[in-house]
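Worked example 3 (structure in, sequence out).
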């Protein structure tokens, strides 16, 4: 569908012209009718041009548009546009096949949250939309998603999202693994899912003195939250572009203090095809093909726990070549793992 402004008004005007049996509208007449309506409505004073009107006419006829019975007829030397079906109107037209497909996909994605606390409304909304737009002909799902509906922190996704959008401060009870419950005032700013777990980032008013320098990028795992409640305190704004400024130079969600380093990994010949088709990180440099069939991959990231886990997932099919500290750490973890067998 054309995305230019004032499209809805243009379509209404054209639809009225095509249904009008009292006069015949040629191309110039349609152009004048549309521009008059735009001018009277105080929209774009420059109106639309010939190219835009031709695009609109094509959209009316398109199966992805209104699929209208629009014909160009002749009256002597005069060409005019009209519906061959006198009863047709875009106001009576159901959604197109293309729109129905998009709506089905959207409902399928929403269905992932059905039954989750704070998303109970989906149980009524999805069937209502399915019936309203006659979407019951979809026999089976065409797409699968990784999700964990039994995840302990699911019930906090909606209230945290609402607190971020509405800029609310929360009093959070939080229990790290193996520790007592802590209470803190938290200004949530960003929700992030990684490896089927959810995390919320924001400002921790009660951060320990020795960690005040990272109070604005505090990370809470939702499955360790035991309760949360809104407070009337003023919200601390956070203008960070999280994906660009925070997550772009790391893997996962655990950001350690340290500089970005070049991580050099060498993968076996058997693993190489998978690495070629699925980059490990957006910072991945062009792959180097080695004479023995192995490949060398270079990443520019801050080494963290998730990077170590990613490397360990490849087992014997990868060797860490640089940096040396990471190489020794992976070596030590592999040796410790071998001791268990």
């Amino acid at each position: 569908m054309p995305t230019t402004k004032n499209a809805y008004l243009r379509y209404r005007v054209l639809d009225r012209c095509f249904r009008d049996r009292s006069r015949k509208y040629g191309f110039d007449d349609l152009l004048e009718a549309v521009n008059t309506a735009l001018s009277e409505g105080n929209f774009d004073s420059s109106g639309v041009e010939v190219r835009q009107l031709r695009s609109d006419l094509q959209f009316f006829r398109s199966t992805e548009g209104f699929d209208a019975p629009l014909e160009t007829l002749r009256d002597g030397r005069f060409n005019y546009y009209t519906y061959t079906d006198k009863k047709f109107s875009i106001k009576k037209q159901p959604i197109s096949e293309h729109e129905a497909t998009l709506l089905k996909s959207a409902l399928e994605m929403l269905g992932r949250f059905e039954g989750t606390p704070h998303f109970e409304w989906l149980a009524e909304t999805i069937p209502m939309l399915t019936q309203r737009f006659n979407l019951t002909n979809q026999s089976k799902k065409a797409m699968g998603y990784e999700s964990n509906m039994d995840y302990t922190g699911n019930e906090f996704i909606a209230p945290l999202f609402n607190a971020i959008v509405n800029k609310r401060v929360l009093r959070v009870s939080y229990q790290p693994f193996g520790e007592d419950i802590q209470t803190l005032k938290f200004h949530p700013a960003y929700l992030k899912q990684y490896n089927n777990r959810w995390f919320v980032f924001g400002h921790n008013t009660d951060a320990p003195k020795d960690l005040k320098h990272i109070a604005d990028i505090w990370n809470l795992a939702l499955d360790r939250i035991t309760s949360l409640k809104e407070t009337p305190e003023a919200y601390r704004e956070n203008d960070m572009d999280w994906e660009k400024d925070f997550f772009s130079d790391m893997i996962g969600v655990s950001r350690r203090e340290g500089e970005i380093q070049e991580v050099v990994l060498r993968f076996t010949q058997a693993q190489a095809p998978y690495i070629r088709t699925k980059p490990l990180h957006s910072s991945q440099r062009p792959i180097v093909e080695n004479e023995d069939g192995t490949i060398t991959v270079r990443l520019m990231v801050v080494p963290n726990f998730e990077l170590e886990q990613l490397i360990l997932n490849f087992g014997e099919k990868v060797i860490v070549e640089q940096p040396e500290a990471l190489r020794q750490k992976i070596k030590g973890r592999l040796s410790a793992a071998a001791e268990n067998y």
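Notes: The domain at 261-338 is CATH 3.30.70 (Alpha-Beta Plaits). The chain has a mean pLDDT of 85.
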